[in-house]
Amino acid sequence: MALKITVIGLGYLGATHAAAMAELGFEVLGLDIVPEKTEMLSAGRAPMYEPGLEELLRKHVAGFEGSTGRLRFTSSWEEIGAFGDVHFVCVNTPQKHGEYACDMSYVESAFDSLAPQLGRTALVVGKSTVPVGSAERLARRLTGLAPAGGDVELAWNPEFLREGFAVQDTLHPDRIVAGTASERAEKLLREVYATPIGEGSPFIVTDFPTAELVKTAANSFLATKISFINAMAEVCEAAGGDVAKLAEAIGYDERIGKKFLRAGIGFGGGCLPKDIRAFMARAGELGADQALTFLREVDSINMRRRGHMVELAREAVGGASFLGKRVAVLGATFKPDSDDVRDSPALNVAGQIHLQGGQVTVYDPKGMDNARRLFPTLGYAESALEAVRGADVVLHLTEWGEFRELDPAALGEAAARRLILDGRNALDPAVWRGAGWTYRAMGRPRA
Ligand code: UDX
């Protein structure tokens, strides 16, 4: 009999995981405490923009013509407990208000609601990003609270999906990390992931703390790589060098690699910033804070980028103040192909300029609704052309493909001045300069 799977928490991670599990052939039941989410998903709609996710939902959500019917949603913990052989916990772990540490309350309450419903043998699998040491503690709590006691086990299986590529990353992971405490748990996880393992995804078995640490270590490394190239951008600006050429040249060394070396306004989103802070906080609790003091520098290099972009924009509009100046902002999400604006560098820059008296108009292909909710006082336009109309300066802050396709000549007709600052080093300077624009990018020489 095929395993029955439940997914608890249906956000960026859980919604994709639930659909992917159905695609792998399992019967899946998803639960979220927000009824709107389960209602949308039951109607085959994704609660966020993620390429390919709605297609996958419609292929599997029960009730669609031609669907496999393998994917259903509920709000009943009792039903979840009765249904699942394997329960994936995918709730979020945001940064605590006013602290670096991560807020474990959603994880705790998911375990507290699930455990009393586990009356038969089951494997609970944590996927959320948690401070090292959490799994050990949650495992004890689980067996203590579950009616089936020791027949309920925990495994930790961190998620590495990137927003914008979530479906691809979930179906074809570049590695699967299984923090397990028994052979039975390992065997079950191998069964769940038999398809990607068959396709060659490495399956790495570890203890609980290592599994938890793999996730935070990976995100810390990525954040460090981005801040490294942004530090080089600062030096390039001071010395008259070109960080884009520098990144290309060092990237040919395979030990360094080309990826994640795009200088610009830095990293944001729901993961990297809060994960490095939570990691520092946890290391402090463990008495290993010295090991991670470099992450403080990684964080501050990153946050400096936003301020630096504001200063470049101020310089572009005359150097004194933003008062009476019109600023067009292209991009609101923290990265392209996502509608996620959590800790978005683009919106942060737009907000700072607005608070200093600039008239900011933002356009983003998918992030407008979320941006409006977070920053209702900013101006919003329905297209890039509308945002640019009458602008004294244009800021390119999220590297959507759509912005690379823009016609600089047409935009030049609409703008008050042909002045563009590329905060992502993603536009072609020659094309913009050819159309009469002054193009400036971070860490690159002025033409
Ligand atoms: C990240 C990790 O990549 C993923 O493995 C983990 O599971 C969750 O966190 P995500 O938050 O989706 O995924 O975004 P990612 O693609 O890593 O980008 C993070 C930020 O870094 C974005 O704001 C992006 O614009 C920025 N970035 C990325 C750069 O500034 N320069 C780069 O070269 C690459």
- The backbone outline, from C-alpha atoms, is globular
Taking all Cα atoms into account, the compactness measure Rg is 24 Å
> Which class of secondary structure composition applies to the elements?
alpha/beta
Largest sheet: 6 strands, parallel
CATH topology tier name of the largest domain: Rossmann fold
Order of the strands making up the biggest sheet? 3-2-1-4-5-6
Total domain modules:
3
Assigned CATH architecture of the largest domain: 3-Layer(aba) Sandwich
Strand count: 14
| Low-pLDDT segments, ≥5 res | none
Instruction: Give the count of helical stretches.
Output: 19
Description of the molecule:
The chain is α/β, with parallel strands linked by helices. It has three domains: 4-206, NAD(P)-binding Rossmann-like Domain (Rossmann fold); 216-299, N-(1-d-carboxylethyl)-l-norvaline Dehydrogenase, domain 2 (Orthogonal Bundle), CATH 1.10.1040.10; 304-441, Rossmann fold. It is built from 19 helices and 14 strands. A six-stranded parallel sheet has the order 3-2-1-4-5-6, with helices on both faces. It has a six-stranded parallel sheet with strand order 11-10-9-12-13-14. Strands 7-8 form a two-stranded parallel sheet. β9, α14 (345-355) and β10 form a beta-alpha-beta unit. α10 packs parallel to α13, α12 (272-285) packs antiparallel against α13 and α13 crosses α14. The radius of gyration is 24 Å and the shape is globular. The termini are far apart. The mean pLDDT is 97. Bound molecules: uridine-5'-diphosphate-xylopyranose (UDX). Residues 159-163, 219, 222, 226, 260-262, 264, 266-269, 271-272, 334-335 line the site of uridine-5'-diphosphate-xylopyranose. Uridine-5'-diphosphate-xylopyranose is lined by residues 159-163, 219, 222, 226, 260-262, 264, 266-269, 271-272, 334-335.
